[in-house]
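Schema walk-through. Below, the input block comes first and the output block second. Nothing else is stored per chain. Lengths vary across the set, and this one has 350 residues.
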Amino acid sequence: MPEILLPYTNVELTDEVNKLPNTFGLLNALAIAPSEPKRSRIVRIDFREGQIVVLSHQEPGAPGEVAGDDDQNGIIIAIPHFTHFENILVGDIDGMLEVVNGEITERSLDAELERKLVIIRKNHAITREFLRLGMLRGEIKDGKLRVLYNLYDTFGVEKKEIDFALGTAATDVRSKCEEASDHIISNAKGETVGAVEAVVDTKFFSKLISHSKVEKFWLQAQNASAQTNLERQRLGGNWGRVFEFGDILFREYKGGLPVKSNDGTVSTVKNVDDNSGTAYPTGTQSMFRTYDGPAYHIDRVNQAPTEEEDGSIFISTKVLDHGTGLEMKSQSNMLAICKQPDCLVQFKTN
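--- output ---
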C-alpha cells in the first residue's frame, strides 16, 4: 500500500527539495548566470547585428536618419536532462537507532527522507556549478566529461586567449589586463558592462600576486583598510583570495568537483585548470543565463519551473516490488549559457 509506505506526493517532495537552499559554488554565489525558467526544453537564442551610430544634427522638421534593417540570426539549443536515483530500503529504517537532540530514538521514514533530499539537492547543485564553470570556459561538459556544447563553435566566434607569461619577470602584466578588458568591451555589442572580473586557479593567482610588477600592489592592498574585506571571500564555500589589479577583479577558485566515469571510478576535476582562468563582464543585462526547462514527466508537460524554484528539481517515486523499499528519481533540466562567448577571455600562464 504506497500511501502507507510514503504518505507524501511527488508534488510535496518536489516542493520540499526545492526549499533546501542551494549554497554551493562560487559562481552560484556570484549569481553570474541567473535562472530563466522555460516552458520547453528546446530554446532559440536570437541575436541581431544592428549597428548603433552617433546621430547627426538635423534642422527641426527635416527627415531624420533612417535605420537599416538588422540582420537577425538565431541558434537552437536543447536543455540537457540530468537524473539521480536514491533508494530508501526497509533495512535503512527497520530496527535502526539514531540520536536526535541528544536522545536515542528509532530512525523514522521522515528523517531518512530528509537525509535523502539533502543528498539529492547537493548532487544537482554541484551539477549546476559544473555547467556554469563550463560556460565560462566556453566548453560545457556533463558528469562523464562529454562535451555538450562548445560555445565558440555554436555561436561561430573565435576564442580569445591571453598568455600572461607570469613566469617571466619582464612581462607587462597591466597591459595584459588592458588587452582583456579592451577585448570584452569591444565585443559587448550593445550589452552593458559594469566591470570585468576573472576567475582563476590557485597557481595563476599565486603567480600573479608574486610577480615583480604586481607584488607591491598586492602588499599595499593587504595593508589598506579599504581592501581588508577583499583579501578573502568565503562565497559558496570557497575560501579564495580576491585582488583587483589592472581594472580586473581576480577571484581565486579553489578545489574541484567529483565526476564518475563509465566504470564507476570517481575522480576530481578542478574547478579551474592549473595556471588558467577566464575573464568575463559583470553587470550585463542578459548575456549569461541558466535555462531551467520543464521536468520530463507527464504531470509537468509544457510547464516552466516557477520563479521560486531556482535550480528546479523534480522528484517522482516508485514503490519497489514486494514492499522492499522506495525508489526516488530526481531530475533537473538545465543549461548555463553565455550568449556572447566572444566576450569571454581565457587566461593562461607559464
